[in-house]
User: What shape does this take?
Amino acid sequence: MPILAFSPRSLALVALATLAALAAALALRYGLIDVTAIAQSCEAGESSIRCSVRFAFNEGFRTLYPGLLAVLVGLATLVRPSVGLFGATLVLSALCLVLFSAWPGALALTLAILSLARPVRRATA
Assistant: This one.
């Protein structure tokens, strides 16, 4: 059974990607989606890129598809652990946790954590 081993470079890349996704999701949610003035102008019929992006993320993440994708990637990480899949699971779960898909995002994060709990192979001498 393979062990998920991080090099310092891969650990830094996973952490940076996860923090970037978390920052983007927070900025999107609290800078665009949850702002009352923007919501009122978009609901009043304003057609701008800002309203289109707000509508796409608001409606897109309220469906189950992003959360389902995060859970599927988390399951793949659990079955075949790799640093890339682990990072993708963390990024997707960060996006889901902030953008309205909390329980699938939490499940994906749990699967990513469980992928770290692998038995250590003994070195054959």
